[in-house]
Amino acid sequence: MTLFYGTELSSRLMLGTAQYPSPEILMDAVRRAGAGVVTVSLRREAAGSRAGHAFWELIRTLGVPVLPNTAGCHTAREAVTTAHMAREVFGTDWIKLEVIGESDTLQPDMFALVDAARILVEDGFKVFPYMTEDLVGAERLLRAGCEVLMPWGAPIGSGKGLNNLFGLRALRAHFPDVPMVVDAGIGVPSHAAQAMELGYDAVLINTAVAKAGDPAEMARAFAMAVEAGRMAYVADPMEMRDMAVPSTPVIGQAVL
Amino acid sequence: MQILVNDQHHDVTAPTLAALLDELGYDRTARLATALDGSFVAASRRADMPLHEGARIEILAPMQGG
């Protein structure tokens, strides 16, 4: 059992809610994924607009726990203010903390991330930091009070999969008891299965589902991959070897 | 009084943040979050939050996110 700030999720698949062709397809995808969490955000609202209200009603209908993000923030101050706004609007102290440091890769700014995390933990937030696979940064985030880590697989929306297998394996090994979620860069279900086989506790997917030709069907495929990857991790996979080892017994083999 | 709301210029008479939302026509029952000059202002504090010339106000609502 994995607890995220004391909460056991119904599924190890977390799903983003952006970029779907329609609200109906989004709802279908969330249901077919059996998502344990959906991520949400905040944007400017014009007077008289009902867009925010309509989205809020959709989320309530789904009945899935929400994880608001601070997407688009480039400084610790912006992220802290956005987190407070999200807590009031969504009624949760969970926050997926994003502080972007580089615009081509949307790479997290680990320095500002740690600063923001420290402030938000003191303000009572349960912080899910979107981070690189940096071991020292992870240590700082844990020291700041984060109880979950969310390393990237690859740049957001790239679909490249797990760019740094060694780094992700090392991070998992260094902090075996910390709930960790691979967030961003996953493109196909096999990437998600690979993250789970490494021992990650969950994956967060958005673009790979939303931009699929059939998002709901892809959501189901990801759900199956996450489950398969987790089962494989628990079942303790064999060690990889460089040389062949016969699987058929050689004892008693005929000499012809 | 000239202020910026979501990066748009407005000339308003509202003395407080709560009055501003009414003056601009925001629905009082809507799920909105506000910030003044980059700092969060809780809904419960809007009625007591005075505006000033050149104030920068952000009014945000739920939206899809990844």
Would you write up a description of this structure?
- The complex is a heterodimer of chains A (256) and B (66).
- Helices cover 40% and strands 17% of the residues of chain A.
- In chain A, strand 7 and strand 8 (107-108) form a beta hairpin.
- Chain A has 256 residues and is an alpha/beta fold.
- Chain A has helices at residues 23-33, 51-62, 76-90, 110-122, 135-143, 165-174, 189-197, 207-210, 215-234; strands at residues 3-4, 7-8, 13-16, 37-44, 66-68, 94-97, 100-102, 107-108, 126-131, 150-151, 181-183, 202-205.
- Chain A has a single domain, classed as TIM Barrel (Alpha-Beta Barrel), CATH 3.20.20.70.
- Chain B is built from one helix and five strands; from the N terminus they run E-E-H-E-E-E.
- Chain B has 66 residues and is mostly beta strands.
- Chain B has one helix spanning 17-24, and strands at residues 2-5, 8-11, 33-36, 39-41, 56-64.
- Helix content of chain B is 12%, strand content 36%.
- Chains A and B meet through strand 4, helix 2 and helix 3 of A and strand 3 and strand 5 of B.
- Strand 4 (37-44) of chain A pairs antiparallel with strand 5 (56-64) of chain B.
Low-confidence regions of chain A: none
Query: How would a crystallographer describe the biggest sheet of chain A?
Result: 5 strands, parallel
Note the gap between the termini of chain B.
38 Å
Instruction: Walk across the major sheet of chain B and give the strand order.
Output: 2-1-5-3-4
Helix content bin of chain B: 10-25%
Question: CATH superfamily of chain B, please?
Answer: Beta-grasp domain
Alpha carbon gyration radius of chain A: 20 Å
> Would you list the SSEs of chain A in sequence order as H and E?
EEEHEHEHEEEHEHEHEHEHH
The pLDDT mean of chain A sits at 96
Number of domains of chain B: 1
CATH topology of chain B: Ubiquitin-like (UB roll)
**Average residue pLDDT of chain B:** 95
CATH class call of chain A = Alpha Beta
CA-atom Rg of chain B in angstroms: 11 Å
Which percent band covers the strand fraction of chain B?
A: 35-45%
CATH 2nd-level architecture of chain B: Roll
Calculate the terminal CA-CA distance of chain A, rounded to whole Å: 54 Å
Helix and strand content put the structural class of chain A at alpha/beta
Query: Going by CATH, what is the homologous superfamily of chain A?
Result: Aldolase class I
InterPro entries (chain B): Beta-grasp_dom_sf (IPR012675), Mopterin_synth/thiamin_S_b (IPR016155), Thi_S (IPR010035), ThiS/MoaD-like (IPR003749)
Pfam families (chain B): ThiS (PF02597)
Protein name (chain B): Sulfur carrier protein ThiS
InterPro entries (chain A): Aldolase_TIM, Thiazole_synthase_ThiG, ThiG
